[in-house]
Amino acid sequence: MKLLSIAIPSYNSEAYLKHAVDSLLPGGDEVEILIVNDGSKDGTAEIADDYERRYPGIVRAVHKENGGHGDAVMTGLANATGLYFKVVDSDDWVDDEAYPKVLDCLRGFVDEPIDLLISNYIFDKVGVTHKKVIHAHGALPIGRIFGWEEARHFKKGQYLMMHSMIYRTQLLRDCGLSLPKHTFYVDSLYCYVPLKDVERMYYLDVDFYHYYIGRDDQSVHESVLIKRIDQYLRVNRLLYTSVDLKTVKQEPLKDYLINFLEIVTTISSTMCILDGSDELLKKKDDLWAFIRDFDSDLYDTLRHRFLGRAMHLPGACGHAVVKAGYKIAHRIFGFN
Prior knowledge:
Blueprint: E1 2-10, H1 17-24, E2 31-38, H2 44-54, E3 59-64, H3 69-79, E4 82-87, E5 93-94, H4 98-107, E6 116-125, E7 132-134, E8 145-146, E9 165-168, H5 169-174, H6 187-192, E10 201-213, H7 222-227, H8 229-242, H9 251-275, H10 278-294, H11 296-303, H12 306-310, H13 315-333
Parallel strand pairs: 1-2, 1-4, 2-3, 6-10
Antiparallel strand pairs: 4-9, 5-10, 6-7, 6-9, 8-10
Helix pairs in contact: 8-9, 8-10, 9-10, 10-11
């Protein structure tokens, strides 16, 4: 069994795939690199096959029909042989100094595995000299095994993302995770659904993952997100239905999950308000109606928090407040 399987979902990634793979190769024989070619129409398949040929036993090329990012992640998980599992997007990479520290940490949890290893990630934004590091300082204990009972409040912008997470592979297979095909933004499900089964965690305070953002064609870019708002709204609804919060006993975990729902729902609502069309404003209202019908208590909690109130400020003046708030948050967090 490998120590770590790393899946690289790849669709038309020939321009940057090599950078991602090359950053992972120093892991050596302990690491399995799964290049999941998701029906690419460019040279991605050839690049994947070339790496498999040059690094047998380390790199595997997995070719499949196009099914989208989530389907590629699930395919990677189905093919993984490692004790632990991580996703690295094809335009991202890992830090050469932090990588050996992450592997050394995982080696210490072979006989008694942990469920989740958490590390920091870096917003590697185009044209920005000072790169913002997202960490869990103050929210999680550092450098030791802990459970949810020791977790504290996560600040806004401090949520666990796919970039910061290495799961135990079997936990992912057993937790009921299912990522829909042909849908963007499913990483929210990946970061949310398995947490109900996570008990043993370890936070390694190193800046491990470089999250490359700032290209106009990226799915998280504001204009692209608005264009694909139906997919984001679909994922938003799936988050509510995928975990029964009433069965979550640990209050810190329950608080975290509710806060996660709050931020995703706020993003959905904000994008609809930024667009400003009657169609998208109705979709915002439909989303909140769905939440109310699904769980009225949870709706009341979210609706009467600061962000929930902001999303329902009436008229043009209310929308102007939301847009101004979005610009401020964008400057602070640099999220797309």
